[in-house]
Design brief:
The protein is of the alpha+beta class. It has helices at residues 19-27, 40-51, 54-61, 73-85, 94-100, 103-107, 144-153, 156-173, 220-224, 261-276, 293-303, 316-326, 351-375, 431-438, 440-454, 465-488, 499-506, 526-534, 538-556, and strands at 16-17, 33-37, 113-116, 123-126, 182-192, 202-206, 227-240, 247-256, 283-285, 306-310, 333-335, 382-393, 403-412, 417-424, 512-517, 520-524. It contains 19 helices and 16 strands.
Length: 565
């Protein structure tokens, strides 16, 4: 029958790396396939998530809209992840991504291998596929339109629940959450073209810093200075650690830009507890937009979650503790920001290079100071920061639990004092640590800058809400998987870097030879492979030569009927 499946596999096929076994087989003249590759970072990434059964678990829990799957779900998920891995979001670019990337190499020649297009001479792929429905030779594991249709048909709400429940549950199984249990919330606007066809979007007025403003309170002249923009809002819950070198998305929700983020955040926390239980989230760091006394109390009393959040200046609790500070009733201690971790310096750096680097750093500091003086108005120099704590304050009347208040005092060169206040449901033994923990929240801004600038998080090409949520979910899934992979590979120093820079540092400087035998693969450098070939016995050499000639004849006719270029 025309639609009879050629190859069905509910679990991802994977070649286990075993250099010794494959090399020993090659010395006997036995191998199945050989290929030279240069994109090893993606290959290793897919090999890691497949070996750990992550890809299989993602496929088993995916909320598919289809009853029958001609293409296994793990292939669809791997293809979508591969696109986001390379920062590509247009599905029609999938053939180019799959040819130039390393996903195919992780799953071996059974999924596909390099081939030459007979008309153009371009390097392409020859893929066996998973059914007999193609009229032309397959050049991708699945058609790019299959990816687009699957993404568009998957309900946005179900996909969000899949991320918040099943995906985060998989991370939990692999011990991705540490004992500190620090979580930070974030709410970001996702801007789209001013087209009303973008389903569920809002049109709002923003200032020059992309902060929303209320048009009703502005004059016509003031409104003319601002810009109307169409947008969505992404509310997310992010797990990090005190060193700030690991970020994992633990929950998300995409809504209209006009929706307030506070009730959404507390619903995400409640949903997280329902899915994954208590004890994972131990500290929740929020900003002023989430000041909600009853929900802060609920986090502490019902879920055992401590909340750290700044107070507004118009709150009674702020006025009370600042009054105590101005009256001299508090015992302040100096606060000095922690020094950044120094970059490792080579032990044997020549004196000439050391002096040149010191001169370069002095020049950079001078230019930075000059640029700051030109672009920013003069401000009084901050002379010192001081910090104090007030325990058991109950004047935030809507909050049912007492709060420890961290009072921060900034003193400038003119002696003027500015205060800002942090509220904590946790007993504050060390206010210095509390302020240091709150500083983690500002690092989220840099993370989202990376996602928006280097992963094109908001470069949406379709007004379909299902496709918009699909893009957000798979970008954040890929980002979190890459974070997990780098920690697993003991490369956590790459976590703070952009996706582009991370891939540059992971890529090898030499081509790698992949040698396949049965269900195993060996990764050899060109010189290692050359030495192996030149030291073969005569009997093995003849067997290798015969197998190589058979492969060449077979591969020469792989694309006998390709699509027109």
């Amino acid at each position: 029958m025309a639609d009879e499946p050629v190859h069905q596999s509910s679990s991802a096929m994977l070649y286990e790396r075993n250099d010794a076994l494959v090399v020993e087989a090659f010395r006997r003249g036995e191998f199945d396939y050989l290929e030279g590759v240069g994109e090893v970072s993606e290959t290793d990434f897919f090999r890691a998530i497949t070996t750990a059964k992550v890809l299989e678990k993602l496929a088993a829990t995916y909320p598919s809209p289809c009853r029958k799957h001609d293409v296994p779900l793990w292939v669809y998920i791997a293809g979508d992840i591969s696109m986001r891995f390379h920062g590509v979001h247009h599905f029609n670019a999938f053939p180019y991504v799959i040819r130039s990337g390393g996903m195919i190499n992780a799953f071996g020649p059974e999924m596909g291998h390099k081939a030459i297009h007979p008309e153009t001479g371009d390097v392409s792929l020859s893929c066996a596929g998973f059914n007999n429905k193609n009229d032309y030779d397959r050049q991708t594991p699945c058609d790019e339109d299959h990816l687009r249709k699957m993404a568009k048909r998957t309900d946005a709400e179900l996909l969000t629940t899949w991320f918040n429940g099943d995906i985060v549950g998989i991370f939990k199984q692999h011990h991705a959450f540490d004992r500190e249990g620090i979580f930070i919330r974030d709410a970001s606007y996702l801007f789209v073209p001013d087209n009303p066809r973008y389903e569920g979007s809002s049109r709002m007025l923003f200032d020059e810093h992309n902060h929303p403003v209320e048009s009703k309170t502005l004059t016509a002249k003031e409104r003319a200075q601002y810009r109307w923009r169409r947008c969505y809002k992404l509310v997310s819950l992010i797990h990090t650690n005190r060193s700030g070198d690991s970020f994992l998305y633990a929950a998300l929700k995409v809504v209209a830009g006009k929706d307030h983020e506070s009730p959404l955040l507390y619903r995400l926390v409640q949903q997280f507890i329902e899915f994954h239980g208590k004890g994972i989230i131990k500290k929740l760091i929020l900003d002023r937009g989430f000041l909600d006394g009853p929900n802060i109390g609920r986090c502490k009393q019902d879920w055992g979650i401590d909340v750290l959040i700044p107070a507004r200046k118009d709150m009674d609790i702020y006025q009370d503790v600042v009054g105590l500070a101005k009256g001299g009733a508090l015992n302040f201690q100096p606060w000095v920001p922690p020094s950044p971790r120094p970059k490792p310096v080579p032990l044997h750096r020549p004196e000439r290079i050391r002096k040149r680097e010191e001169a370069r750093q002095r020049t950079l500091a001078l230019h930075k100071a000059q640029a700051t003086a030109e672009t920013q108005p003069s401000r009084p120099t901050l002379m010192r920061s001081e910090i104090a704590v007030v325990a058991g304050v109950k004047t935030f009347t809507s909050c049912p639990v007492p709060l420890d208040v961290i009072v921060n005092k900034e003193v400038d060169a003119d002696g003027r004092e500015e205060y800002w206040v942090l509220l904590s449901t946790e007993t504050v033994a060390d206010p210095l640590l509390g302020r240091q923990d709150y500083a983690l929240r500002t690092t989220i801004e840099e993370r989202h800058r990376q996602l928006k600038c280097f992963s094109d998080l908001e470069a949406f090409s379709s007004p379909s809400f299902n496709l918009i949520v699909n893009q957000v979910v798979f970008v954040l899934l890929t980002y979190s998987l890459l974070q997990w992979y780098l920690l697993r590979a003991d490369r956590k120093e790459l976590n703070p870097k952009t996706r582009t820079r991370t891939l540059e540092l992971l890529r090898p400087t030499l081509t790698v030879i992949l040698l396949y035998y049965q269900s195993y693969v060996a990764c050899l450098s060109p010189l290692e492979h050359q030495e192996l070939v030149l030291t073969l016995s005569e009997e093995a050499r003849k067997k290798i030569l015969a197998k190589t000639r058979r492969l060449r004849r077979t591969l020469a006719n792989q694309l006998a009927n390709p699509r027109a270029p």
